Amino acid sequence: MVVFLCDGCNATLKRSQVDVHAQRCRKCVSVSCVDCSVSFYEDDYLHHTSCITEAEKYEKTSNKQKPLKKNPQDEWNKMIEKSISSAPESLRSMFTQLFQLGNAPRKEKQFRNFTSNSLKIRDFKIVDQMWSHLAKFRDDERAKRESEVHEKKVDDISGKEHKGKEMDTNTKHSLNVDTSKSNVERSESTTCNLDCRKIKKVMKRTLKKARDNKLKFKELRKVVREKIAFEGSREDLKRICLDQIERDKSMEMNGKMTSLLC
Asked: How far apart are CA 37 and CA 57, in angstroms?
């Protein structure tokens, strides 16, 4: 069974208790599911009939594979292998032996000692050449990776800017087309962009303060306009208020009067 929490006062509610609680609790703008923590506004919670359990959440979390960390020594050994083809011909056989050993040190001093002893090289100039080649190859690879990352960032930024320009162009085109639409379509667009929950909250609060929880619909609209500084037309506000009354079962219209049901 799905259980909800009031996002205003943290009260625990069964599905059958949500509607009554929302009428009594002034802080109750939405409720959230105890299991999945998703918030639901107005009567959206009615459609949330099943949810993931805590056991399922734990199982999914525990089954997630942790990303494997790269082994620095393996990466270094791979780099030695890649550097063989670009090494001077006189050094290639030595680099091949070094790669096959698989445990060449990554720091210069240790590398020199290891190479001299493991490959039995007595000429230190050769060891110097081997380290210089590896150090240069490593720096070139690092610069190449940094360049690729930079290029990717530039491409991403360019792509976002291009997408943004396309959206702006589409928006301007849409606005030009919208100028020929009917008053009903403009009203619906205003309704979509307005914070209807705030309007409903003001309506309920006003009706609670009114005598017998009743007020003329015209006066109620006037209060709403002043409270939220509504900038749309009277018809827009009228449509929005009627829509909220129709959606919310705690309010109803009786002729010209609007009532808050107790």
From this structure: 12
What Cα–Cα distance (Å) separates residue 158 from each residue in 32, 110, 147, 151, 172?
39, 45, 16, 10, 21
65 secondary structure, DSSP code: P
From first to last of its 262 residues, the chain has per-residue pLDDT tens of 778 888 888 888 888 888 888 888 888 888 888 887 788 887 777 777 777 654 555 565 555 555 566 788 888 999 999 999 999 999 999 999 999 988 899 889 999 999 999 899 988 899 999 999 999 999 998 888 888 888 888 877 877 777 766 776 666 665 555 555 555 455 555 545 557 888 888 888 888 888 888 889 989 888 888 888 877 788 888 888 888 888 888 888 888 888 888 6
**Whether the predicted model's global pTM rises above the 0.70 cut:** no
Residue 31 CA to residue 27 CA, distance in Å, equals 11
Q: Which two tokens stand for residue 195?
A: 């914070």
List the beta bridge partners of residue 13.
4
